[in-house]
Design a protein that fits this description.
Layout: E1 8-12, E2 19-23, E3 26-29, H1 30-51, H2 77-84, H3 138-146, E4 153-154, H4 178-185, E5 203-204, H5 206-218, H6 237-243, E6 247-250, E7 263-266, E8 269-276, E9 282-288, E10 291-297, H7 306-318, H8 320-325, E11 330-331, H9 334-337, E12 340-344, H10 360-367
Parallel strand pairs: 4-5, 10-11
Antiparallel strand pairs: 1-2, 2-3, 6-12, 7-8, 7-12, 8-9, 9-10
Helix pairs in contact: 3-5
Length: 371
């Protein structure tokens, strides 16, 4: 036999400001009914406070789960444009050949998943270690550029394809080729690159080195099939990268300082600046006979410049086997008078640590491993 549910009816009595609740024919004052509800309401409030806003309502009245907290990503050119009220640039101004959604109907770009914020009392997530493929940071640029140093020979055509028209297999790959290290280990101090011309898989030339560096900076294993790479004639590298919208082109005639990360092109050569020393000499990275190494610009005088001494310290301390065979760490001062500079924009390569403001001595202190 089913029990009939109780039915409540609210009646207004003749007594002013008094109401009576009728329950199955039995009367009950509103005050007494309210007193019975108070414990239930207090219990409900207590549960709500302990759980927080468990079921926030979105527009339209549907419930949604609370989203996780993530560190904010670095501002992109599109985000910066939106914040300033200026029109956002269309196309992929940072990475040519990699498509980006330009139309309003395109799917929004997913935010990169980063380490969640940690609660008090918990150890924070470890910072990313460099070099790391596909991370466009100034710090990562230099750490990546140091990877082949002291273990890769200069090979004319190294990094180019068989047709000698652009990037080859190694310059479209992540990380250093094992073949580079094996070939370098077999060479003695009498190495002559003329004997190994176009053995393109055994080492790198200057354009192949910079092309490999850029590919590792902007690409990951998942994007190996994208683009044609960045290996090109060395004389044109700085201007071409500036035409991509990656940074400012400073002609050789206007060059007055060389900052960490600057990519510099001269007739027949391209190199990466590590900054200017106190005496005006420049510390640099490049692929030049006999191989990929750190050098300093010399002066017209016989005394060693600060950059040359710093390069010798770095190479002898960190790459002793290489330095024993190939101790040369000096290049002509014409590197400074003949090179156009491509200086990175912050929209392409983030420099939160302000490496571009560092001297060569400060950059070396940061990037040179402690002996």
């Amino acid at each position: 036999m089913q029990t009939r549910p109780k039915q409540y009816t609210l009646l207004r009595t003749k007594t002013p400001k008094r109401k009576v609740m009728v329950c199955d024919g039995k009367t009950m004052s509103t005050r007494r009914y309210t007193m019975l509800l108070i414990p239930f309401l207090l219990l409900l409030c207590s549960c709500s406070r302990s759980q927080g806003n468990m079921f926030p309502l979105q527009k339209g009245g549907t419930a949604s789960a609370k989203p996780p907290l993530y560190n904010m990503p670095s501002p992109s050119p599109q985000n910066q444009a939106a914040a300033s009220g200026t029109p956002a640039p269309t196309g992929n101004t940072a990475f040519p050949g990699i498509p980006t959604p330009d139309s309003p109907s395109a799917e929004p770009e997913a935010l990169p998943v980063q380490a969640p914020l940690t609660a008090p009392g918990h150890a924070p997530s470890p910072l990313p270690e460099f070099p790391q493929a596909g991370v466009p940071l100034m710090e990562n640029l230099i750490f990546t550029a140091l990877e082949p140093v002291g273990g890769t020979m200069y090979v004319w055509g190294g990094g180019w394809n068989e047709a000698d028209t652009g990037a080859g297999q190694e310059a479209l790959s992540i990380g250093c080729s094992r073949r580079w290290a094996e070939f370098a280990a077999a060479q003695g101090g009498d190495y002559d690159y003329h004997d190994h011309r176009y053995k393109i898989h055994d080492g790198l030339d200057c354009s192949g080195y910079i092309g490999w560096l850029l590919y590792n900076l902007f690409h990951t294993e998942a994007s190996l099939s994208e683009g044609d790479g960045y290996v090109m004639k060395s004389t044109l590298v700085a201007k071409t990268l500036s035409d991509y919208g990656w940074g400012e082109l400073i002609p050789a005639s206007d060059a007055a300082e060389w900052k960490p990360g600057d990519i510099c092109s001269m007739s027949g050569h391209v190199w990466l600046s590590l900054g200017t020393c106190q005496d005006g000499s420049v510390l640099l990275l490049h692929a030049s006979p006999p191989g990929v190494r750190i050098c300093g610009t010399a002066s017209s005088e016989s005394e060693k410049t600060d950059a040359v001494m710093l390069a010798e310290k770095w190479m002898s301390g960190c790459y002793p086997q290489w330095y024993e065979r190939f101790p040369g760490c000096s290049v002509s001062n014409s590197y400074l008078t003949s090179s156009d500079i491509m200086r990175w924009s912050s929209g392409t390569l983030e420099d939160a640590e302000r490496f571009q403001a560092m001297s060569a001595e400060e950059a070396a202190a940061y990037f040179m491993p402690e002996s």
